[in-house]
Structure formats: C-alpha cells, structure tokens
Design a protein that fits this description.
Layout lengths: L1 H12 L2 H20 L18 H9 L7 H4 L4 H8 L7 H6 L5 H18 L2 H6 L5 H35 L7 H29 L2 H26 L3 H4 L3 H8 L5 H28 L4
C-alpha cells in the first residue's frame, strides 16, 4: 500500500493537470492580495462574517479609523481602493482570504480525478487489482494519498497567502503566524469532509468525464437548492451557517464552542457516509 502511495505521488508530480491546479490556486491568492479583497467561487460570499474578534470590533467602533461602504467603493480605482483599505487598522486580509477556502474544493477535483477517476478511465486499475493488492488496500491507499495532497495544498495556500500579504501589503493587513495556522486547523475537518465527498463520488462515478461533470457544478447547485429551500420552507437562518462555504468562513474566524462541536459532528458524518458509499460501490463494481 505504501508503494502505491509513493507511485501516486510520483505520478501526480509528473502530471500537467496538477500544476494547472496549483497555478489557479496561486492566481486566486495573487489577485486577492492585489485587490485587497478575497475572491469567491460560489454564491455564499454574503454569508462570510468579519474575522475580527469582538475586542477588535469594539476598538474599531471607538476609533477614528476609516470604514468603507459600498457607496465609498463605487467609482474608486483599484489604486484608490487599495490605499483606502490599507488604512483600516483591524482588517486582516490573510484571514479574509483563508475564509474563502471553499475555492480549494475546485483544486481538489484535480487531485481526486488524477488519483481515482483516471485509473478507471485508463483501465489501469484492472492491472493493479490483479497484482497482490486487494480492493480494500487500493481504496485505503487512494484515500490516504488524496487526503495528504489536499491537506498539503490547504497549508500551502495558507502560508503563501500569509507571507505574500506581508511582502506586498505590509504587516498592517496581516494576522499573526499562529492566528492563520489556528484558523486553518479549525477549517481542517470541513476541508476533509469536502475531500471525502469528492473521493466517494470518484469511486461511485468512476469515469473522469462523468466525475468532472458532477463535481464541478455540485457546490453551486447545492447552494442554489439551499437558497430555494430557504425561500420555500423558511428554514432558520442559523442552519445556513452549516453550508460548506459559510462554515469555512465561520471556522476561520472566532466561532463559539457549540458551533465548532456541531460543525465537526456534521463533518464527521459526511466523511463516514461518503467513504462508506464509495467503498461499497467500489467493492461491488465490475472492473473492466
């Protein structure tokens, strides 16, 4: 199994698709740092809460620091907007960019497709399973490999954001190293849940084209269905904070202990369900 994981690492570092994913991740970070505003792929940007602590919010309200409204931003050039935002004393850009880590969901698709779906599409899985490795070992090796890659990308994204923000925008808009690390660790269960969804679907759908067709629009379709459900059934707004993008935003800030507990229980349930479904489908699948 260890040899399989090593082989997957070798293969992914030789893949152009992997570096395309890295490029888009760095591009999103670079644009966000230049504009001093996190970029979102999705519909839930409005659910993102401030990453300032209650003490920082109180200090900001009592100070003379500049606050920016939508009206203020209208008609501003990028240069003017950057200059105005950099005067904010309690705004931490790196934490705000980390709150938009739902964007990594789309990068993880590259990893999962290369690790699992490509094996089915290329029919090389038949040769692998005909050797000494069992389906259980194959499944576990893929799960471990995908999780290691995605966790590595998560922290790479965090620290590239942190250091690039300091270099380009100065320390005024930067959090402490420990703060961004803590925010990322708090997000980790939600990230692992997203990875579990993609991995489970890869083993259920098998073919790369079908996997991409389902997973790429999945997050936005879920958000649209949730918005529709809220409008039709008047769901409590508190439940909306457990939507993946909103959850990642809250977890990057200063969530309450009860919210952390409920979020992690939900993430744990998602992880168990999708890995079980993926393994059951893979165990019964006819390998061609």
């Amino acid at each position: 199994m260890i040899n399989m994981i090593k082989a997957d690492f070798y293969r992914i570092f030789k893949s152009k698709a992997f570096y395309i994913g890295i490029f888009f991740m760095l591009l999103m970070v670079g644009v966000s740092i230049y504009l001093i505003e996190p970029g979102y792929i999705g519909m839930s940007a409005g659910l993102v809460e401030t990453n300032a602590t209650p003490e920082e919010n109180l200090a900001a309200s009592q100070s003379d620091e500049l606050s920016l409204t939508a009206e203020d931003l209208t008609g501003m050039s990028i240069k003017e907007m950057r200059a105005a935002t950099r005067k904010l004393k309690h705004y931490k850009l790196d934490r705000d960019i980390i709150s938009a880590n739902m964007n990594l969901y789309y990068i993880f698709i590259f990893i999962t497709a290369l690790a699992v779906a490509a094996d089915f599409s290329g029919s090389c899985i038949k040769n692998t399973l005909s050797s000494a490795i069992s389906r259980k070992q194959y499944f576990l090796s893929k799960v471990i490999f995908i999780n290691l890659c995605c966790i590595g990308l998560l922290f790479l994204n965090t620290y590239v954001t942190y250091f690039s923000n300091i270099l380009f925008n100065g320390k005024n808009l930067a959090s402490g190293f420990g703060e961004v690390t803590k925010a990322t660790l708090q997000q980790l269960p939600a990230i692992l849940a997203l990875v579990a969804v993609e991995t489970g679907l890869a083993f259920m759908l098998k073919k790369t084209a079908l996997f991409n067709t389902v997973t790429i629009p999945l997050a936005m379709i879920f958000q649209m269905l949730l918005s529709l459900a809220v409008a039709l059934f008047k769901i409590k707004e508190s439940y909306l904070s457990y939507e993946p993008q909103a959850m990642l935003a809250k977890l990057s800030g200063n969530p309450s202990g009860s919210y952390l507990a409920h979020s992690y229980l939900l993430c744990g349930a998602v992880i168990i369900v999708f890995y079980c479904l993926g393994y059951m489908c893979f165990r019964k699948a006819e390998i061609k």
